[in-house]
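Fold these two proteins, one after the other.
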Amino acid sequence: MISTLAVAGYRSLRELHVALGRLTVVTGANGAGKSSLYRSLRLLADCARGGVVSSLAREGGLPSVLWAGPGGSTSGAGGRRRGPVSVRVGYASDGFGYLADLGLPSGDPGQSAFTLDPEVKRELVWAGPVLRPAATLLQRHGPAVQVRGDSGGFEPLVTDLASFESALAVAGDPARTPEVLAVRDQVRSWRFYDTFRTDAAAPARTVQIGTRTLALADDGSDLAAALQTIAEIGVAEELDACVDDAFPGSRLQVVSEGGRFDLTLHQPGLLRPLRTAELSDGTLRYLLWVAALLSPRPGELVVCNEPETSLHPDLLPALARLITRAAARTQVVVVTHDARLADLLDAGAGTTTLRLEKQDGETRVAGAGLLDAPPWTWGNR
């Protein structure tokens, strides 16, 4: 389980270290930095997966996401930077930690047209909850990657890694780098859900070829197959309970015609079931969250961005109970601007709530002092 998330130099997150629990709720006013924290988690995952360039390209390139305010270790008098321009993201757990340091392209600007692509300047993987030199397992500086050898010293892994690639992508020898591969597999299992469409042309409303689906696609296109998989090899009783909790007396049924799956919802008082194309936006969205959170093979982290969207307020208690069920099986982070949902989740035992606020353009955790932040160090570039 991730115990610490750290971000520096990204949007409104000048320097933020937060502790994560089994269920973490991120809330706050509009513009407080909730989306920045969510995006930083995605950026961290994309760094480890080797997709950092395309991730930042969607946001306008590295210059568009850099911290723009004064103050901090990278600024001098008048807000002028006195250190390297960088975006840094990292996480720690009881087992391992990982960080990536991204910077502007170096060298002759005329050598490449990709002037907005970030460069991975540094990556580190370590054992334990805090970065220490003696616990470092992998270190990357520019194109050179080294791993801890059997003798205790560092040995070269590659010397010419491209600036847009992750060191985790080349650490593929289980005998030589088992811990690094464990970190890579951990991050690759993270799941992010924030783009569920419910309009008439939404992928979730389209009849699809049905195959066993252990994790719902991020666009919900395999909804019927994911729910059928939960019913057959997952937690069928919980599936039925979550549907009945939101829509009392209702039940789901997946219809297969020639191998193509469609979802139907049987509701009291109706002479026929409703197919996916007929469901209301709120009903469909709730069922998408059911499929996402009751996965029979949950990743090590599931991140839900504004799950309350399109839901009637009466469905929020059922949604909160669904999220709490999921948190009993995997680590969950919920980003929400809905105060009622945040309060419902906060009422649960063991919930960590991060109420964000912005002061002088900088996102902070409301009421938190310097001693409340978990221990963290970035090391030196």
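Now the second one:
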Amino acid sequence: MHTFSLAEAKAQLSKLIELVEGGEQVTITKRGKAVVRLVKSDPPRKQVPSLAEHRAGIQYQGEPAAEFIRKMRESDRY
């Protein structure tokens, strides 16, 4: 972990970003007290497809579920 004063951080921002991209943690101090910690951010999340797209991909099975269940109940299998 690297520590820089606020004045040093202002002057060397590009260097701090390179350190963080490399996996290091950087702490910035103000008057000797830690006020900021720079860490590498997580990769962005994958976009979830919309519900409309999901529904469009579902194939119709031929009969409604209620009819299918009714037939199962009336048959010997149930």
